[in-house]
Amino acid sequence: MDIHEKIKSLREKKGWSQIELAKKLDCHPTYISRVETGKHTPSLELIKKLVKLFDINFDYLLDEDLDNYEVKIEDKNLAERMKLVDTLEERQRAALIEVIDSMLTQKRMMELLTNKGELMKSRS
User: Fold this and answer.
1) End-to-end Cα distance, the chain
2) What are the structural domain ranges in the chain?
3) pTM, to two decimals
4) Which CATH architecture best describes the domain 3-68?
């Protein structure tokens, strides 16, 4: 999968339009359209913003061989369980992903609230 396909896929997984993504990245929707169709190569600045926005690493975007994309998991118990996820039915995997996404969103929200609270205290 090429970088432009990955960007489009990431955007669609979030349920965002190209206009919404452009606003989040502070760029023009036409630029997003051209990047997603492969007519433009994304700038390094855009790639940095995408990595941060989608909470992914550079390797994911820049590596064209997703079939060989390796995720390193330090926790052995978690790594063993992750190997077994492929044995689940599709609907079970989808449910598991929803739970994981929900927990990660909750964690990010708490971090944002904590950071915002610290910012407010430092301004006082």
Assistant:
1) 49
2) 3-68, 76-123
3) 0.53
4) Orthogonal Bundle (1.10)
